[in-house]
Design a protein that fits this description.
Length: about 160
């Protein structure tokens, strides 16, 4: 592993430290890798969100192109607008190297969808990504290839 980047959340940084193992690498925190801002949904129980904002909740998980946050949250377009340039910058800085990136569920699903050439509408058709799962994108000759998506085989 040549470089490690993490969401600036403490939980993600700690996960990156564990994943880096004994490697003495600097973990570079990046706000751009934070989870999607859920606006007024932050800290609320799922049942409350499902009941009070049923259509928006459905769109959040199934129709990313139609999702509009409640309050000051982010749209998927805004998430793509901050996360993808950060990933592109990491790729540019580390061509030919192995890079570990620790981020969050929806941010990762969005990144995987983007590099898997999925439209925003198709993003909702992708499988969910579980916590502490592994995903891998290889890039050869500037062409990204999804090699692993949400793998949880290490849970066993």
């Amino acid at each position: 592993m040549d470089a490690v980047y993490s969401s600036s959340s403490l939980r993600a940084w700690r996960t990156a430290r564990i994943a880096a193992g004994n490697k003495q690498v600097c973990i570079r925190p990046m706000d751009e890798l934070m989870e999607i801002n859920m606006g007024l949904w932050e800290g609320q129980h799922i049942e409350f969100i499902e009941n009070r904002f049923a259509q928006q909740y459905f769109h959040f998980f199934n129709r990313s192109d139609l999702y509009q946050p409640t309050g000051f949250g982010e749209t998927y377009e805004q998430l793509i607008g901050r996360a993808i340039p950060a990933i592109d910058s990491i790729i540019s800085r580390h061509q030919g190297e192995t890079v570990l990136i620790v981020t969050h569920r929806i941010t990762l699903k969005t990144i995987m969808g983007y590099y898997g050439k999925k439209t925003l509408h198709e993003l909702g058709t992708l499988p969910d990504i579980q916590s502490i799962s592994l995903s891998k994108i290889s890039i050869e000759h500037h062409v990204p290839m999804i090699e692993m998506y949400g793998d949880t085989s290490h849970y066993q």
